[in-house]
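Quick one, T. Sequence first:
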Amino acid sequence: MFSNGGYTKAATGTGYKKISFNGMTEQFISKIWYHLLINNWVLNVILAGILLFLIIKRGKKNFLTAEMSVVFCGFSVYSVFHKVYPQWVFDSNEMLNNGINTILAILFFANVLLCIWNVVDKNERISMCILYLSSGAVAAPLLAANPIGARCFYISYIFQALVVLKLLRYLVIRYKTDLFYPVLATGVIVCILAVIYIRIFLAIGQVNDYRSQLIQAGIEQNQKEIVLPILPYSEYCWQTVPPTEEWEKDFKDFYHIPQDVTLRFE
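Structure tokens:
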């Protein structure tokens, strides 16, 4: 993450990002685990499905396998439900709600490691556990960074995806599993999702281009107020409107808008 120039500026006290060791506990509870696991619902469902399949293949029925099955099913359903209905909360107290989400995420993370250690052969399980632990380790420096978003966790998601791929390879080799139809179904779903996302970001790009035209016209006509449209599907972007005066100043600098011009988004 520190290859990003934004963090270099943050370390020197400039730029919109800040590096601070105050509030790391709140950052850990409110943001780290949310983005690392709860927000990562697609990989959660795939990973849980593979691990449940391995548990069934092992054929052992005891308290541990029952507990892991409940955690995998419950967390997968919750992460999908949270994506579909993000307004729902466990409690109106934001800190308590974030704390519950963090406990659930840690429980899922720990059970993934526990399941891999118990159902995968010795020569494979160590590398898988290291990869999965690495997804959390590379996110650790974000405890001191602010603001952060889902894009800061891409490397973590790559490590988790590698674990999924290694588990799929293990299934094919260890249990001679025919994955043609599951892989075909997954490929079709991925293509459909890709088309949907392309359509969404094309719409965002069209409105953003229109924004740029309005800004250019406003600058050329020496307008004292420029009215800009809010980007569609704004939930798929980190920020679409400058949230603070400092950000608005940077927005004007980027588009070469005079600082005395008023911006209005509607």
